[in-house]
Amino acid sequence: MEVDILSEDENSMLHRTDVQFEVAHEDATPSRLSVRDSLAAKINKDSDEVVVHKLDTKFGMRKTIGYAKVYQSPQSARQVEQDYMLERNKIEIEPDDDDGAAEEA
């Protein structure tokens, strides 16, 4: 599996970079997690900082076009991204400290 970056757009307000990429693959469409790990390795980031939003493979082709958001830190990703997208990308969702204190009291 080979990952090529097509475009990168800096979004400093949300502490992230929006990345369009292309994945060339021999077999079936690779999983979201394997694409995330390959993309993270390509741009020298930790896997928890990369959130893959879209993978689109045209029928019969061995190329997939995708869209991902690369955050400066995992905490930035948790603050901005919705929970279902974090779950899809297997990024741990940390519970709020306030809720834990309220349950103990």
UniProtKB/TrEMBL annotation:
Domain of life, per lineage: Archaea
Gene3D superfamilies (UniProt xref): 3.30.70.330
Biological process (GO), any one: translation
Family designation: Belongs to the eukaryotic ribosomal protein eS24 family.
Family matches, as PANTHER family: 40S RIBOSOMAL PROTEIN S24 (PTHR10496)
Native organism: Haloquadratum walsbyi J07HQW1
An annotated GO cellular component: ribonucleoprotein complex
Sample GO molecular function, one term: structural constituent of ribosome
Lineage: Archaea, Methanobacteriati, Methanobacteriota, Stenosarchaea group, Halobacteria
Keywords: Ribonucleoprotein, Ribosomal protein
UniProt keyword Ribonucleoprotein, yes or no: yes
InterPro entries: Nucleotide-bd_a/b_plait_sf (IPR012677), Ribosomal_eS24 (IPR001976), Ribosomal_eS24_CS (IPR018098), Ribosomal_uL23/eL15/eS24_sf (IPR012678)
Annotated protein name in UniProt: Small ribosomal subunit protein eS24
NAD keyword on record: no
A Pfam family the protein falls into: Ribosomal_S24e
